[in-house]
Design goal:
This protein is mostly helical. The protein has helices at residues 3-21, 30-45. The termini are far apart.
């Protein structure tokens, strides 16, 4: 798997989370923070 494919897979997982839960991942929930929040924060800075 290339880096681009991994990035797209992570992006799709986050979009699915947001559509399913109707909210952004919480930085206070350990599971969500580890899986989504750190990735989102990093990519927003870029």
């Amino acid at each position: 798997m290339t880096q681009e494919e991994a990035w797209i897979q992570k992006y799709n997982a986050i979009v699915e989370f947001i559509n399913k839960n109707r909210r952004n991942p919480s930085k206070y929930d350990d599971e969500e923070r580890g899986a989504y929040v750190n990735w989102l924060r990093h990519n927003r800075k870029l």
